[in-house]
Design a protein that fits this description.
Chain A is α/β, with parallel strands linked by helices. Chain A folds into two domains: 147 residues, Rossmann fold (3-Layer(aba) Sandwich); 135 residues, Rossmann fold, CATH 3.40.50.10490. Chain A contains twelve helices and nine strands. A five-stranded parallel sheet of chain A has the order 2-1-3-4-5, with helices on both faces. Chain A has a four-stranded parallel sheet with strand order 7-6-8-9, sandwiched between helices. In chain A, strand 6, helix 9 and strand 7 form a beta-alpha-beta unit. In chain A, helix 3 packs antiparallel against helix 9. Chain A is globular. Chains A and B meet through helix 3, strand 2, helix 4, helix 9 and strand 7 of A and helix 3, strand 2, helix 4, helix 9 and strand 7 of B.
């Protein structure tokens, strides 16, 4: 196989391995909160972070009896939320540490009495200084969130496979994900070539892939590639949106292996009847060596992310649109 | 003023007045549940009902300390939700009584021990027989939901203005809403004429208008008019989506008068800098005679709905697309 474009295998492996290496620190923070007691868990974010928050929430809902939800920072700042107070654990994340809504929402949550765990990549920022428990490490937001979620559930007796799962992840996950990227590359090149000029592209997903689907459409194709998209959940697809799908409409379904898999399978089965332009990306098509069948559903969103990494690289080439540039975001005041 | 097309003023007034007339029945049901005790409130739906569930949720979050959320029926049937059980009040709605996901989700919630209040328009259906408390009356789903929400909050000491608000609504709301339709008609005709052939139309909203914005884009323009749309919350607009807006992009912002108004105002202020094709629909532009300033925010979604009723009528004419027809929904098995 020829070398992949824009693909530093060692750097990618080191990045995931390093994120997994945060586990001792995460366990210390979560265990201390568990000892003190808490009564609900709020995943806080906006844009891409809010998408990750939705993913952590659906992951926990599958197992946990705890009150858990994804809070949008802009909504919290205006509508408020009386469920956030003493006994609330707020978990958030920011690469730059300067997303204004998140800074303001963390301040408000702390004033209400919540404990805040912050994954702030830049430890020198104001936000990093504001949180109760700071963990600074680049990228891997979803993996960080799921590690926190899993530790809370293990402590609550809701995730007995915790040690076994993380032993597998520590040993195999980083390698498995770069192998996904390699395996996906030829498909990704073809997909980008076919869809780079779509007037609008539809993305459908569910479960722990839904947040990732929403975020991929909005934070990658719209924000970074300036391509029009719409994302919809697999369940909602049949309640309105599908009426505009006809033979030419480009629709991509992401199928994961968590509990909502049947919802996406249903969309994938139906689509060929109404469009000749659909694509199915199924995490089950990727081997993930060393990862047990029963843990695959917990990382479906990471497999999808790995496939999307390759689509991004080829979309950037096909569109000749450098993904770093922004028209408006942080270019203008608004 | 010439008579409005497709506008039966007396029928519209009677419909809203009749829905308000359900209040004695709603109070009886809610008060009985309040006496027994409950610990959380789950608004359950899919598609349009889920959208109404999101609206009831954000309305309650503004005031209530109770755990309240919108549950998507398809997600509940797959991922499940351990927060639904004894002590949970589930509220749902169905016009036909035959939406499969809602039927199955209500069964599952009742098996888990929840009490279900169902607004099922057709009392002879299986779903109507399944719910613990049945209220049958045509349409007005959002108003029904808000009446339940408000009664729970009044009983909990979180909505002291309840009696005063509903005295105003009983006396003036039905008339105020038809006056909105009349006032909106000329604008709606112009809007439909301008936007009927848009390749895609963007709708932005927040607060108790967000569910309505999502539902209007999906259940009306997509499902009933076969027009492409994307909807986005006012807060999320600045976190990705706005990068694809340029001079020609048609974007409509719905501004309500609830706590999230500033989020939508911000979008409305910014849009003219990047598109010459934006529209602002602001509930504040409609007088609502007899309704006090402090209650206007609680019915912003109904004002928006009244404006949209007129847009629908004119879109149907402009597109020559009868809104009753469906390509796929309930036409095919899927």
């Amino acid at each position: 196989m020829a070398d992949l474009v824009k693909f530093d295998e060692q750097a990618k492996i080191a990045s995931v391995q390093g994120a997994l290496g945060l586990r001792a620190q995460i366990e210390q923070v979560v265990d201390a909160i568990f000892e003190q007691g808490y009564h609900n868990i709020c995943w806080l974010g906006i844009g891409g972070t809010w998408a990750s928050a939705m993913q952590a929430t659906v992951h926990m809902k599958e197992r946990s009896a705890c009150e858990v939800w994804a809070e949008n920072a802009a909504e919290y700042l205006t509508t408020g939320n009386r469920r956030i107070g003493t006994g609330t654990v707020v978990i958030t994340s920011s690469v730059t540490g300067s997303t204004q809504e998140v800074v303001d929402a963390v301040r408000k949550a702390r004033e209400a009495g919540a404990i805040v765990i912050g994954f702030i990549d830049r430890p020198e920022t104001e936000l990093a200084r504001m949180v109760d428990h700071l963990i600074s490490y680049d990228e891997n937001e979803q993996l960080k969130f799921f590690m926190v979620a899993d530790r809370f559930m293990k402590n609550a007796g809701e995730f007995d496979e915790y040690d076994e799962q993380y032993a597998e992840f520590d040993a195999h996950l980083a390698r498995a994900l770069v192998e996904v990227e390699k395996r996906a590359d030829a498909f990704a090149a073809e997909f980008a070539s076919k869809h780079a000029e779509d007037p609008i592209h539809y993305f459908v997903g569910a479960g722990n892939q839904w947040g990732a689907t929403y975020s991929y459409a909005m934070c990658y194709w719209e924000e970074q590639l300036w391509r029009k998209t719409k994302s919809i959940t697999s369940g909602e697809f049949f309640h309105g949106m599908f009426e505009i799908v006809t033979k030419e409409t480009p629709v991509t379904v992401y199928i994961g292996e968590d509990a909502q898999r049947p919802l996406s399978e249903r969309v994938a089965r139906f689509l060929p009847r109404i469009t000749a332009n659909s694509t199915v990306i199924d995490t089950r098509d990727y081997p993930l060596e060393g990862i047990s069948e029963r843990f695959r559903g917990n990382i479906s969103h990471l497999v999808m992310h790995a496939v999307n990494n390759r689509i991004d690289v080829h979309m950037e080439i096909e569109t000749r649109h450098p993904m770093e540039i922004r028209r408006y975001y942080r270019q203008l005041d608004y």
